[in-house]
What we know:
alpha+beta; Immunoglobulin-like; 3 domains; 4-stranded antiparallel sheet; rod-shaped; disordered N terminus
Amino acid sequence: MGAITSVYSSRAETSNQSNKTEGEDDDLLDGKNREQDIAQFPYVEFTGRDSITCPSCQGTGCIPTEQVNELVALIPYSDQRLQPQRTKLYVLLSVILCLLICGLVVFFLFPRTVLIEDGGIKMVKVWFDTENKVVILGMTSTLKISNSNFYSVSADSLTSQVQYMNTVIGTQQNSNVTLVHPLSEKQVNFTVKAELGNTLSYLYYFCTLPSVKVHNIVVFMRTSVKFSYIGHVSQSSLETYQYIDCGANSTIVWDNSITGPRK
């Protein structure tokens, strides 16, 4: 009886194993059939309403190797990478920085007026033409140039005209006068030759009159200087009245211990 039972059990196990093998084979066949079905099914994109066949992979679900470097990746608009943090802050700081730089450039490069001041007559040399009754004056004047810009200024030309009683008695023009450094002052000396003759020949007798110790006359000087800097050209003018002694040579000695010149 026991032998019969063991025979039946062994047959049952053998039948179970054969059934399992047949089931696994069926599963493998079903899997291969599914893969074939999926391969034949075109790759589509599901947008919620309609499905669109992928144009890049042509419905195969794979991108050809030769087109990898030709395609552009599409990132959704809602992607976090397209929404950087503190964008407004960065834009505001950039605008402020640009305005600050522009303001500094305008402040330092904006052309300012170059001022000229009269330094007075420094020296006067007198010659007498006894034959023609003419007094010849050589007047050396001082001009102070003030540069308030943050760059050097070139004084290209200086023109000076001397008048006595609305009569022009001398003119002088100099070129390439000087270069004034930023935020500094510079003194320029120039000499104008003037002649007191013709209709002013009566001054010869006044200037040579021995009974008069000081032969002062008043002359009118008009001086203009042309400046150039960073492509900008300007001109400053100065008009002054000067007292000079036409009877003898005179030199003004400058002394730093006092506020004004002395003879």
